[in-house]
Design goal:
This protein is an alpha/beta fold and about 600 residues long. It has 3 domains: about 5-60, no CATH class; about 85-210 and about 245-430, Alpha-Beta Complex (Spore Coat Polysaccharide Biosynthesis Protein SpsA, Chain A), CATH 3.90.550.10; about 440-595, UDP N-Acetylglucosamine Acyltransferase, domain 1, CATH 2.160.10. Helix content is about 30%, strand content about 25%. The protein contains 17 helices and 30 strands. The strands form 9 sheets. Strands 2-17-10-13-9-3-4-5 form an 8-stranded mixed sheet, sandwiched between helices. Strands 18, 22, 23, 25 and 27 form a 5-stranded parallel sheet that branches. Strand 3, helix 6 and strand 4 form a beta-alpha-beta unit. Helix 5 crosses helix 10 (about 285-295). The longest helix is centred in the first third of the chain and has 19 residues, at about 155-170. The radius of gyration is 26 Å and the shape is globular. The structure holds uridine 5'-triphosphate (UTP). Uridine 5'-triphosphate (UTP) binds near residues 128, 133, 187, 244 and 246. Its EC number is 2.7.7.64.
């Protein structure tokens, strides 16, 4: 080893053969600075060993190891410095996909197909993100999806998967023992809290072996354009690390062996979803039906997108050399790409009032067979990018260390042109209500654009459920406008139901009949399975909580003082954070509870 690393030389005897090899790699890859501050032998030896434990982890969790990481980083940093456009030579056009209209015959028929298929599906929740924009202290999946029941996102997801499992089994011929697998990708930031949330709630009714956690590792931070690895400012014997992005899910699934296990038990689909979209399952059965009917290898769930809205657009990119792909183009790249390729107005709405490029909501449905085939070639590696914040126009130094990142929706980038890549567009009220922004940032969102806050996340659940009931024939009153945490928002009647009551529109229709009405100030909470609403006139709060084997008819007039929404000050730290970030809480003044154990 070169004499430039005397500190390392002096300490070599501490290292195993494997560690010595890795030390060589580091030195050869221009990382000798990592040993500059090492102490004499016999001083801080445990820390030196811990350093190499970390290096081994970083090396083994990245396809091709650290050498490959550093090499790719140098290439991407050089491209970034040169201002190279990753889409150079590609022309965008609008791809073909399916557009659904909630509740019509075609929607219901896709839903039916989807429910049949779902027992051949595995679900994958990516939940390793820090949630810096939201700034919540806990993990995001532990946040209540809405506060009438207080059920958290993870509970809602699991209960919906279980309800889909039951619904699908009912349609199966013969006996059905299906247990739909759920994988949760965590990171060091979320892992232990996710385990605790599951264990302390008995996995929300799932069998513990139905749920598998895969933890993603962080990647090394980079200090400069030569990809010198950053020393952790808190410990000179550690490399600073940051999250690599949700694209890790593909390599983790591949290396876990789960994909082939699933294939061998007859599964056909893998559905990916994110941590805080309380409406996502409203669109899952129909979209899975689209995947099955259109034989999509990749189906991206999408919503109509306003031009310049901060979500990516699903785009077909065609290269002069014949390459072609259907891929998410980030909103800040779509406008310049359009302008550079013969669309002088860039990202603008068409005659529908929306951009012609559907907005990606990052829920993917992949067909398992072709997915395994592709990952066998790539090992699950996803094309990465780097996004350094430069100190000045010379682009020679960074404001803070950067790292390589990858996104799960970039999976189709390596697919052959023969791959069937499509999308399914749904109305945004039905399937998209993410919770990503803290109240201050949400309040600054330009008028008319979605807040993506805890406030909107909950209010959109009530809106969607109200609109679904309307479509099923219930007279649901119009909303009123209210302001919470500086965000003006529609407040609909607070209607919620457990997934086991209905996971498809057909089930809702079967359970609602006659002429029912719900006033704006009302709350309706349905907690049982066999609850039939008929000629109900609700003006107040009604909670129906009956055992699954009981059948109950809900009818007649219910009137009481009800549950009232009270404003909560975001800065009032005496209020739990889960409520403060919404800007309201529910004061349960009076209600009728129908319960049968
Ligand atoms: P977001 O875009 O919401 O990012 O991730 P984030 O990291 O959670 O939040 P910010 O950007 O810091 O505010 C979309 C989904 O991908 C997961 C998140 O948990 C979320 O479900 N994710 C993100 C991962 O699983 N791993 C990552 O490294 C990043």
């Amino acid at each position: 080893m070169a004499s430039a690393e005397p500190n390392l030389q002096r300490n070599l005897h501490l290292l195993s053969a494997e560690q010595v090899e890795l030390a060589k790699v580091l030195v050869e890859m221009g990382q000798a600075h990592l040993f500059e501050h090492w102490a004499e032998p016999a001083v801080e030896d445990d820390e030196k060993k811990a350093f190499f434990d970390q290096v081994i982890r970083l090396n083994s969790s990245y396809p091709g190891g650290l050498a490959s990481y550093i090499k790719t980083a140098r290439e991407l940093l050089a491209d970034s410095k040169a201002g190279k456009n990753p889409f150079d030579g590609f022309t965008p056009s609008v791809p073909t996909g399916e557009t659904l209209n909630f509740g019509d015959d075609s929607f219901m028929s896709f839903e039916e197909t989807g429910v049949k298929e779902v027992r051949k599906a595995a679900f994958v929740l990516v939940a390793g993100g820090l949630g810096e924009r939201l700034g919540y202290n806990g993990i995001k999946v532990a946040l209540p999806r809405e506060t009438t029941t207080g059920a958290c996102f993870l509970q809602h997801y699991i209960e919906t998967i279980l309800a889909l499992q039951d619904a699908s089994c009912k349609l199966a011929e013969g006996e059905c023992q299906t247990k739909i697998p759920l994988v949760i990708m965590t990171s060091d930031d979320t892992h232990s809290h996710t385990v605790e949330l599951l264990k302390s709630n008995s996995y929300f009714g799932m069998e513990p072996n139905q749920v598998k956690l895969l933890k993603q590792e962080k990647v090394a931070c980079l200090d400069d354009n030569d990809a010198r690895l950053a020393v952790d400012p808190r410990n000179k014997y550690r490399i600073q690390t940051k999250p690599h992005g949700h694209g890790d899910v593909h390599s983790l699934l591949y290396s876990s062996g789960l994909l082939t296990e699933w294939r061998d038990t007859g599964l056909r689909w893998v559905l990916f979803f994110q941590d805080t979209n309380g409406l996502l399952f409203n669109g899952i059965p129909a979209s899975l039906g689209v995947s099955a009917t259109r034989q999509y290898h990749v189906n991206s769930l999408a919503v109509p997108r306003k031009a310049k809205e901060a979500i990516g657009g699903i785009t077909r990119l065609t290269h002069a050399d014949g390459r072609s792909m259907v891929i998410n183009v980030e909103y800040n790249q779509l406008d310049p790409l359009l302008r550079a390729t013969g669309f002088p107005d860039g990202d603008v709405n068409c005659e529908t009032g929306y951009s012609p490029f559907p907005g990606n909501i990052n829920q993917l449905i992949l067909e398992l067979g072709p997915y395994i085939e592709e990952l066998t070639k790539t090992g699950g590696a996803i094309q990465e990018f780097v996004n350094p914040k430069y100190k000045d126009a010379s682009k020679t130094s960074f404001k803070s260390s950067t790292r390589l990142e990858c996104m799960m929706q970039d999976y189709p980038k390596t697919l052959p042109p023969s791959a069937r890549v499509g999308f399914t567009v749904m109305e945004p009220w039905l399937a998209y209500a993410p919770v990503k922004n803290n109240p201050e940032d949400a309040a600054k969102v330009p008028k008319g654009n979605p807040y993506h806050s805890a406030t909107s996340g909950e209010m959109l659940v009530y809106r969607a459920n109200s609109l679904i009931l309307r479509k099923a024939g219930v007279q649901v009153a119009d909303p009123v406008q209210q302001v919470f945490n500086g965000q003006e928002i529609e407040v609909w009647p607070r209607v919620t139901w457990k997934p086991k009551w209905a996971v498809t529109f057909k089930e809702v229709k079967n359970k609602v009949s006659g002429s029912s009405s719900i006033s704006q100030r009302s709350t309706l909470v349905i907690k049982g399975r066999n609850i039939f609403v008929k000629d109900l006139c609700l003006d107040g709060a009604l909670v129906i909580d009956v055992a699954d084997d009981k059948e109950v008819k809900v009818e007649g007039s219910v009137q009481n003082k009800g549950w009232i929404l009270e404003n909560v000050d975001y800065n009032d730290t005496s209020v739990p954070e889960e409520l403060r970030i919404r800007g309201f809480r529910i004061n349960k003044i009076e209600q009728l509870v129908k319960s049968e154990p």
